[in-house]
Amino acid sequence: MSSNTFGKLLSVTTFGESHGPAIGCVVDGCPPGLALAPEEFRDDLERRATGRSRWTSQRREADDIEILSGVYQGRTTGTPIALLIRNTDQRSKDYGDLQGTFRPGHADYTYWQKYGIRDPRGGGRSSARETTMRVAAAVIAKKWLAERHGVRVRGHLAQIGDVVPRAFDWDAVERNPFFWPDAAMVEELEAYVNALRKSGDSVGARVTVVADGVPPGWGEPIYGKLDGELAAALMSINAVKGVEIGAGFAAVAQRGSEHRDEITPQGFLSNHAGGILGGISTGQAVVASIALKPTSSILVPGRSVNLAGEPVEVVTKGRHDPCVGIRATPIAEAMVALVLMDQALRHRAQCGDVGDVAPRVPGQAG
Ligand SMILES: Cc1cc2nc3c(=O)[nH]c(=O)nc-3n(C[C@H](O)[C@H](O)[C@H](O)COP(=O)(O)O)c2cc1C
To answer: 214 CA to middle of ligand 1, Å?
Structure first.
């Protein structure tokens, strides 16, 4: 009922609030024998971390992970893996004057209506701080997927406001703080985001995640469809208002002759399906995109009401992030990786004896 756990054979439970003493997760169902050290979490946590650049909010956290259980002599034991990160930058005084108001675009109003009590410090449980633990849990999933199946899950920012990349290069993505695939546009983006920050306003963004190397067969009909579970997992990320698989909403304007991804012995001729048919992976790249809404906490004053229902004006005074989507790429990758590992384990459990079935066409022709 309280839905802090997801996944079937690989399940992840997160806990903690933005400004509590710590956040953490329990990853249950990871097969034994996977080498795992605290240092392996650093890269992805750093990629997600707030304060990684001046384009995102200034909150700084060390995000040092403690592995509390499930790992012995550097290897997973098959028992629950508990991970903990202590919050070291709590600064709840920043939020003192927001206790009695419902910030527009935030979960304040709905949490209040639902629970009748809320932790207002930094959004409490509804804060994107929680997504840190999804990224941490997915370090395990990414590693297992890569080692066991050669699957690589990576993402990039695909649009910010009305700006789209003019070129595409995976190598560029990790070399700029925007996860932007067009290196020649980074200065332009900096100017764009800088102007936004000065205006006190924000914009939305689109993030795309691609999982290469997924074999055919992962995903379960009918209620456990791979695309269905990806959509739910991605939609669970803060500020996500839309999910597309493959061509997504562009499919509306396509003809069947264009969309249907014809198959030849040399491979599929296109990938409008995003690597999934009937809820089951085709062996092509699994492709999912998300739409993130513009940051709600902005310097532009907005109208709301207080606990007494009286009108108030809300203005964010402290940190202001002109586009939360800039930081969402590692989180989206994490959710895709966790869903894929869960589905891989479920496929192995039910269909492990089926083995390789001929013929298997390559993912993409050419
Ligand atoms: C990485 C990330 C960071 C976020 N940081 C902020 C922020 O600094 N300010 C803000 O107003 N919203 C931020 N959000 C969005 C809010 O957490 C979210 O809009 C709010 O909890 C309401 O939930 P909903 O938009 O999913 O309905 C962030 C989202 C993500 C994914």
So the answer is: 30
> Which residues does residue 159 pair with via DSSP β-bridges, in sequence order?
206
Q: By the 8 A CB rule, do 16 and 136 touch?
A: no
What are the C-alpha distances in Å from 321 to residues 58, 123, 170?
Answer: 8, 15, 25
Ligand 1, pocket-test mutation among 296, 316, 317, most atoms within 8 A of CB: 296
The tokens describing 92, both together, are: 């709840």
Tokens of 269: 């001729």
What's the pTM value of the predicted model, to 2 decimals?
0.96
Tell me how far apart the alpha carbons of residues 29 and 171 are, in angstroms, rounded to a whole number.
33
Which residue's CA is minimally distant from atom 5 of ligand 1?
Answer: 324
Phi-psi region of 215 (alpha: psi -120 to 50; beta: other; left: phi over 0): beta
Please report the pLDDT score of residue 262 as a whole number. 97
- Would you state the pLDDT for residue 356? 79
Domains of the chain by start residue, with CATH = 89-351 (3.60.150.10)
Residue 141 has pLDDT above 60, yes or no: yes
pLDDT value of residue 54: 53
Rounded CA gap, 297 and 231, in Å?
26
Q: Is 297 among the annotated ligand-binding positions? A: yes
Q: Which pLDDT band holds residue 49 (cuts at 50, 70, 90)?
A: confident
Under 8 Å between Cβ of 361 and 283? yes
**Helices and strands in the chain: count of H runs, count of E runs:** 8, 17
pLDDT digits (tens, 9 = 90+) for 262-272: 999 999 999 99
Terminal CA-to-CA distance of the chain, rounded, Å?
48
Q: Which of 38, 26, 81 is nearest to 62 (CA)?
A: 38
Structure tokens of 170? 């995976």
Confidence band of 60 (pLDDT split at 50, 70, 90):
low
